[in-house]
């Protein structure tokens, strides 16, 4: 297993991972997110923030992705990373923490001083929140969404 930043060599793999992520984590949000919107976000990420798109490569194929944006939020002078997607194919999930730790190490080398992780409310929410807590995260904000 190796960790690489995005390159077009893995474009099809990234599209596949985004589709799998959408089906597993996003599709239940009643149209708030679309496959096209997810693809557009990843295309933008690849074009402008590819150093923030980490891929877990196994046997020449991307089997996991951890990607987001580098930003300085309003009211802060710190460079932070906002995670947009962390997805690992189920058969490789036991290796996903290695992807995360390597991404964290590289982000720190880029001058990132904090990582913001999103938790979508679904059947896995408690498990994910417990996992992030074990990694040292603390909750700081909750969002709600309503179709109008």
Give a summary of the structure in a few sentences.
The protein is α+β, with helices and mostly antiparallel strands and 148 residues long.
Spatial strand order of the main sheet: 1-2-3-4-5
What is the CATH topology? Aminopeptidase
Give the second-level CATH assignment, the architecture: 3-Layer(aba) Sandwich
Low-confidence stretches: none
Percent strand equals: 15-25%
Order of helices and strands: EHHEEEHEH
Number of helical regions:
4
Largest sheet geometry? 5 strands, mixed
Averaging pLDDT over every residue, what do you get? 87
What is the global morphology? globular
Tally of individual domains: 1
Radius of gyration: 15 Å
Termini separation comes to 45 Å
Summary tags:
148 residues, alpha+beta, globular, 5-stranded mixed beta sheet, Aminopeptidase
Would you write up a description of this structure?
Helix content is 36%, strand content 22%. It has 148 residues and is an alpha+beta fold. It has one domain (2-134): Gcn5-related N-acetyltransferase (GNAT) (Aminopeptidase), CATH 3.40.630.30. It has a five-stranded mixed beta sheet with strand order 1-2-3-4-5. Helix 3 (96-109) links the parallel strand 4 (80-88) and strand 5 (114-116). The termini are far apart. The model has no long low-confidence stretch (mean pLDDT 87).
């Amino acid at each position: 297993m190796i960790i690489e930043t995005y390159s077009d060599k893995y474009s099809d793999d990234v599209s596949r991972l985004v589709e799998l992520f959408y089906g597993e984590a996003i599709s239940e949000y009643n149209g708030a997110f679309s496959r096209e919107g997810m693809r557009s976000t990843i295309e933008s990420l690849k074009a402008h923030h590819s150093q923030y798109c980490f891929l877990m490569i196994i046997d020449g194929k991307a089997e996991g992705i951890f990607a987001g944006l580098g930003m300085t939020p309003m009211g802060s002078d710190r460079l932070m990373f906002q995670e947009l997607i962390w997805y690992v194919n189920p058969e490789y999930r036991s290796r996903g923490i290695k992807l995360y730790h390597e991404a964290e190490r590289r982000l720190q080398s880029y001058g990132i001083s904090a990582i913001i992780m999103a938790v979508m409310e679904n059947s896995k929410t408690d498990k994910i929140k417990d996992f992030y807590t074990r990694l040292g995260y603390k909750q700081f904000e909750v969002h709600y969404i309503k179709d109008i």
